[in-house]
Specification:
Strand content: 5-15%
Number of helices: 18
Structural class: alpha/beta
Largest sheet: 7 strands, mixed
Shape: globular
């Protein structure tokens, strides 16, 4: 059995080898110098050459996050050992696990609340509460460790925040909040499942107390896989957590590219100071808006060890709707006057990289049919961007599945399938981008995570 450090070194060797091979096969490292003899201004005309160069350089909008992913995946151990508690759970501060739901899937919520409560007890956590905040009554069996809060239909925030932001803000109101400023909150989605490692990681984080906000890894391929296509597509997000997210929090302790809305750990006093009451523009991607506000106020962030489990969307329709809402929500954050530009510059670059994806992907066809001479560094970096993004699907599979759990044949099939999912993901993301850019920006689509029969491959 390989130890974690050996696994990490092997992953780094595979990563660098994959990039080098991709550079050669894609022409990032050019051995044929004939392309430099082309005069694009003569061959394609000034308009045609200008368009080709514009499309080539627009791909560089994704370079910052690609560099963060590359550094994060190589600089930090990508296969950490089991999380070890650094102190007694009996001495930990009070922790509240807060789940926000519309209440459309009460059985799912009740099942996961019970699982998560037992997992906390198994991990040795004593001072905790699981709080379910819902628009519709669920009928939880409440005890000293489970509380159900129903948001009144008459409740309005000061700025008119809606959807999940409204529910989160309701819990922070003086006449509703039961927590002290020194207590801690762990935000979960209704389908999120805790693991003992994540509970230990949270305990280490809150007992350390150096940072007011934290976040960790979420994986999507645990237990029953409902839709293999969307699950393999989400392996990219797993790698993004281990790369970009981990690097920005471990190195800079700032949400330079924002964060996710689940596996979010906050100190109550800091969360109340930042607030989720950010108007309609802060209600579509409330997690992103909150992170940028916290960044502006100078709060500190860190990465939390351990992982939590979630499910990928069960249908392609939900997958598209999910991506569309994220894009629109981040777009509204980037263009909000409430957040200084200096705090969202990398987020803005990332957002416009996403929005211009249809244009940058056109290089896959145009670069071979209409070659243009570029500086060798430009060619190298373009191929580097493509290589890192492709490897993220491979690493996501490696991180999400184990041979022990699914068997060698199925494991190899998943690795191969990751390559075939990349074109699918490109198509889906492009549909979401076009729809997101031209569609209505203030709609909040809720993805159905109520378990259904598995889609077999």
């Amino acid at each position: 059995m390989l130890d974690s450090r050996t696994k990490h070194y092997l992953h780094c060797c595979l990563f660098v080898s994959f990039i080098f091979l991709f550079e050669i096969l894609s022409g990032g490292l050019k051995f044929d110098k004939s392309v430099y003899e082309i005069n694009p201004w003569v061959r394609y005309g000034y308009l045609g050459a200008s368009v080709l160069y514009f499309l080539r350089f627009i791909a560089f909008l994704s370079l910052p996050q690609v560099l963060f992913n590359f550094i994060g995946l190589t600089f930090y151990n990508a296969f950490p050992d089991k999380v070890i508690l650094k102190g007694s759970p009996l001495l930990a501060p009070f922790v509240c696990f807060r789940v926000v739901t519309r209440g459309d899937f009460p059985h799912l919520v009740r099942t996961n609340v019970n699982r998560n409560k037992n997992k906390c007890i198994d991990a040795g956590l004593e001072n905790f509460l699981i709080q379910v905040v819902t628009d519709k009554p669920i009928g939880l069996e409440q005890d000293k460790r489970v509380q159900e809060i129903v948001v009144p239909t008459t409740y309005r925030t000061k700025t008119g925040a809606l959807f999940k932001a409204r529910a989160l803000q309701y819990c922070l109101e003086d006449d509703v909040n039961i927590l002290n400023d020194t207590d801690w909150l762990v935000h979960l989605d209704e389908e999120t499942i805790l693991t003992e490692n994540s509970v230990r990681g949270i305990l280490n984080f809150v007992m350390d107390g150096k940072h007011q906000f934290g976040q960790g890894l979420i994986t999507y391929a645990n237990e029953e896989v409902v839709n293999w296509i969307t699950t393999l597509a989400d392996t990219f997000r797993v790698t993004d957590d281990m790369g970009k997210l981990k690097f920005q929090f471990r190195m800079f302790h700032k949400p330079l590219f924002s964060w996710k809305g689940s596996f979010v750990v906050t100190q109550v006093g800091a969360e109340r100071a930042v607030s989720f009451d950010n108007g309609i523009d802060g209600s579509i991607a409330e997690d992103c808006f909150f992170a940028m506000r916290a960044y502006e106020k100078g709060y500190s962030f860190n990465f939390i060890e351990g992982e939590m489990w979630e499910k990928s969307p069960f249908t392609l329709w939900d997958f598209i709707q999910q991506r569309k809402r994220w894009l629109q929500g981040i777009f509204l954050v980037v263009h909000s006057k409430q957040i200084p530009f200096k705090n969202k510059i990398l987020l803005a670059i990332s957002c416009y990289s996403w929005m211009t994806m249809p244009l940058s992907l056109s290089n896959l066809v145009l670069a071979s049919r209409y070659p243009i001479p570029c500086n060798p560094l430009v060619d190298f970096l373009c191929a580097f961007i493509g290589a890192v993004n492709m490897y993220m699907f491979i690493f996501g599979v490696i991180k999400s599945f184990t041979i022990y759990r699914i068997g060698l044949a199925r494991y190899m099939l998943c690795l191969v399938a990751a390559f075939f999912v990349i074109p699918f993901n490109m198509v889906i993301e492009n549909i979401a981008v076009i729809w997101g850019v031209f569609g209505r920006k203030h709609a909040f689509y809720v993805v159905n995570k109520n378990l259904k029969p598995a889609v077999v491959i």
